[in-house]
Amino acid sequence: METIVKTKYWHALKDGRIQCDICPRECKLKNGQRGLCFVRACEEDQIVLTTYGRSSGFCIDPIEKKPLNHFYPGSAVLSFGTAGCNLACKFCQNWDISKSRQMDTLADMASPEAIATAAKASNCRSIAFTYNDPVVFHEYAIDVALACRHLDIKTVAVSAGYVCPQPRAEFYRYIDAVNIDLKAFTEDFYRRITGSHLGAVLETLSYLKHETDVWLEITNLVIPGENDSDKEINQMTEWIMSALGPDVPLHFSAFHPDWKMRDKPRTALKTLQRARSIAIINGLNYVYTGNVHDRSGDTTFCHECGEELIVRDWYEIKEWTLNGQGQCARCHAMCAGIFAAEQGDWGSKRVPVKLGHACES
Questions:
Q1: How far apart are alpha carbons 267 and 25 in whole angstroms?
Q2: pTM of the model
Q3: Domains (ranges, CATH) in the chain?
Q4: Cβ-contact 314, 225 below 8 angstroms
Q5: 288, 297 in Cβ contact below 8 A?
Q6: Which of 5, 14, 171, 255 is the most exposed place for a label (fewest CB within 10 A)?
Q7: In whole angstroms, what is the distance from residue 72 CA to residue 341 CA?
Q8: Per-residue pLDDT reduced to its tens digit, 139-194
Q9: Of the candidates 190, 297, 215, which has an alpha carbon nearest to the alpha carbon of residue 253?
Q10: d(CA 31, CA 47)
């Protein structure tokens, strides 16, 4: 059974259709139709969210898995998503959730208060909207974030950043940290591979960096033959440096064949290392490799003296030399980020959590 919630980001068109204004896709719908995301629908001449309170599952993860390496490193985060997505990425690695057209994918039902209480009881420092993009479950995500604030639980978003300005401003008032998936740095890739546009994502990145206090990190999934050229990596990292500054952490993540791009090979470690080198040459202070075993690419280095500040092996923290103020113990330079006085000790564990009750199909 679906849970229907009215939304406010829409307007009526002269031809009788209703335009959804949550994202730049601007789906124009007649009564009974759903947007590309599948979960926002037109009913009784308004846009409604059909999946409020329903989740594809809950799991406690290391915060580094989001990935966020500079937001309470080593801490535990309660992760969950719903169903649907407002992009059409051919390489989607959560396609069974984000591209689901079956509401029985949503196996768990939980109120915002139940989610916040579960995070607190599990000693999670934060909750994360992930697995699918929180843009499409905007109203549910905000209510969860509000419930978390009452219990001093931080809120993390993992998003493609494809959202309109007004709902973006509302959403990020309640978010403490975000990882934006910058999928490529050409309009051709965005249009052809994701069915969206690069410009709106760059606007979101600039907005987050310059108009909010939200901690920001970026992920780039490197796909062989699509967005892995030195030229594109150079252009992207030059833009990040000039538009966002040197202290926004950048994660180059390895692709594996999935959904509609099973013909592509996995990303080679040397490709990620080459991309990381280009980014560092262009002035970025914190550059990582992901989805591969690369201890150097997992480690946080001091941008001033090169000291190893946080040594990681996959999601395990092996060494920690930051002092209680987030400074390098050797040269006392500040490491950009949000840190606790001591490292977290969650490690690499992934623990499924059962909340609420099973949804009716």
A1: 30
A2: 0.95
A3: 5-49 (no CATH), 55-358 (3.20.20.70)
A4: no
A5: yes
A6: 14
A7: 9
A8: 999 999 999 999 999 999 999 999 999 999 999 999 999 999 999 999 999 999 99
A9: 297
A10: 9
